[in-house]
Amino acid sequence: MAAKRTVEVALGTAGLDEQGRPQRAPVTVREDGAVTTLAPPPALEPALELEGQHMLINIGPQHPATHGVLRLVLELDGETVVRCIPHIGYLHCGFEKIGEYRTYNQIIPWTDREDYLNSIGNNCAFSLGAERLFGIEITPRCTVLRVIAMELSRIISHLVWLGTTCIDIGAFTPFLWAFEQRERVYELLERWVGARLTTTATRVGGMAADIPLGWMDQLAHFVKTFPKTIDEIDRVLTTNGIWVGRTVGLGVMSPDEAVNYGLSGPMLRASGVAYDVRRDFPYLDYETYDFEVPVGIHGDVYDRYLVRMEELRQSTRILAQAITRLPDGPVDTADHRVVLPRKSKAMSDMESMIHHFKQVMEGPRPPIGECYVPVESPKGEKGYYFVSDGTAKPVRWRIRPPSFLNLSAISKMVEGHLLSDVIAINASIDIVMGEIDR
Amino acid sequence: MSGAFTPVIPGSADASLPSPTTLKQVPLSGGPANPSAAALGTQFGPVVKRVEVVRGETTVYVEGAKLLDVVQWLHDDPGQRYDYLSDVTAVEYRDPERALQVVWHLRSLPRRRFLRLKVEIATGAPLEVPSVWSVYRGADWLERECYDMFGIRFAGHPDLRRILMWEQYREGFPLRKDFPLRGRFSRSEQLRQALSVNPEARYSMEELSVVQAFEDLPADMRQRLLRGERTGE
């Protein structure tokens, strides 16, 4: 196993003990006023077996710390979790079924609502998959715009994760700092596509809109000032005794287990497996960007926190590079199979009008075929699998949900931990129930 | 930045591989097939029915009965090392005569390969394929979802029950093409059924059997548990 980690603990604890938990050094004040520090008391003998019944406890579906309508049924021995049975499906909307009755551009609004913290990233992922199915190449400007969109949405998602996890564990200040920055990203998105949460920003073959005038300056300002907040949160949390004590050593997944359970994203990388779709199966020319894939060593909650913090920095780096390389030119592809004619032509030219009508009423038809295009969403490997029989609506539209597989390992991760640690472990998975239940 | 953490990139993929690039101009069909497809052909012979390359992705159609052997070999063989199960799903075509397909997306992280396995279940044949849970633990929920949505039974799965729909759901399998988009019953009937559910039914029989508070359960539920009844099949 990897080397023992050393973490500097800032807030008045005497460092970490052998199990990685912060030691408490009891302080005694003698009658003459002198202060002595005693050695920590010996640990209790674990041999004492108490008689008692196991208890069945139900967390959720309406519980603030389950991050949505997740329900965990826990069998407890005292305060220790013996067994955990997760129940999902409370938010099941049948997205995949509905997608079989919609044309490709009509499905894009549904992708917003699925992982709603990453809506613009889902739009880009969906369009990438549909374009592979149609056999369309997008323009260089669209490629860079989508990189910007996906990294902005990664920042939003990680900030929400950070804020809510802080609340779960008992820290309130970083939550406010994170949500303040998230608001700035939403302002950027609002100026670009007109919506904050449900963006519907892409179309098959391009984007709904080009960026407005002066938008890049606003983005550049954000990229310049945002790392200060990451550093502040880093300073408050990373060496904080309470934070370290509540996160180190919890929910450990070894690299082999993590791969075998199908984990992806920060969950997998915290276990030491450097699998990032952006680097291993690149899309949108990600291989030409200079960024690093952070990995953890221990695969516990604390490492997942560190990995996500570093990913925020790397996303900012990618954004800075994308700003400098954004080319001029058209956003939408010239392929008339999927792109609507210009409105002025549709109003004046008969053929263009018929083309416009057929595109809107019937939708573009891809050739018979199938494809699976994965992207690196903030939660992990998100893939859309399309099967087409040559009609305008997909025979099968499958979402490969990263949170779904990450959550499926929770029974293993919480086993043997305390009830209060279940909350921290559940928070570290970064689940979005909209994506899990679909 | 604190000194507690430095980003590193250990080689989880083989260092000898060329660095991958974004796929451009992918042809509709044809192109280089994944070398694992040919290896499967030599290893298993007639079990491999045909190989297709569509949009740059290799699909291998295999015989359903031998699927677990194929997957086990792909996972264990040092030349293949498909250590990651991306997805398990199924495809039913609009043409009712066409066979239903069960799809496995396998990924080799060390070799950066992607392989799609398919098993075709002809119309009228029993919807049953082997479970790959013994090879990939990640298949647990994926197979449960596939069962829930399509009704495909995965033989060897330890806990095959509904996952997205509730356990008492009796309307069928929503992603099948014969299932109407709005569900089988009217809205008022669906509401009536939802409101008439016994609150105790929110716990599955399995969960109730783990507690030692067995005696506190309602009499009918105790009876059902004693008869050996388990989850909502």
Describe this structure in words.
- The complex is a heterodimer of chains A (438) and B (233).
- Chain A has 438 residues and is of the alpha+beta class.
- Chain A has 2 domains: 55-87, no CATH class; 95-333 and 367-437, Orthogonal Bundle (Cytochrome-c3 Hydrogenase, chain B), CATH 1.10.645.
- Chain A has helices at residues 95-99, 104-112, 119-134, 140-169, 173-193, 215-237, 241-247, 255-260, 266-270, 277-280, 301-325, 343-348, 350-361, 402-408, 410-414, 419-429, 433-437, and strands at residues 27-29, 35-37, 55-59, 71-77, 80-87, 202-203, 206-207, 369-377, 380-388, 396-400.
- With 233 residues, chain B is α/β, with parallel strands linked by helices.
- Chain B has helices spanning 35-44, 67-76, 139-150, 187-195, 205-210, 219-226; strands at residues 48-54, 57-62, 84-91, 100-108, 113-121, 128-130, 153-155.
- Chain B has a 5-stranded mixed beta sheet.
- Chain B starts with 34 loop residues before the first helix and ends in a 7-residue tail after the last helix.
- At the A-B interface, helix 1, helix 6, helix 8, helix 11 and strand 8 of A face strand 3, helix 3 and helix 5 of B.
Mean pLDDT of chain B: 81
Model regions low in confidence, pLDDT < 50 over at least 5 residues of chain A:
8-14, 25-29, 35-41
**Highest-level CATH class of the largest domain in chain A:** Mainly Alpha
Q: Strand order across the biggest sheet of chain A? A: 3-4-5
Structural class of chain B: alpha/beta
How much of the sequence lies in strands of chain A comes to 5-15%
The run of helices and strands of chain B is HEEHEEEEHEHHH
Largest sheet of chain B: 5 strands, mixed
Largest interface: A-B, 78 and 70 residues
Largest sheet of chain A: 3 strands, antiparallel
Number of domain modules of chain A: 2
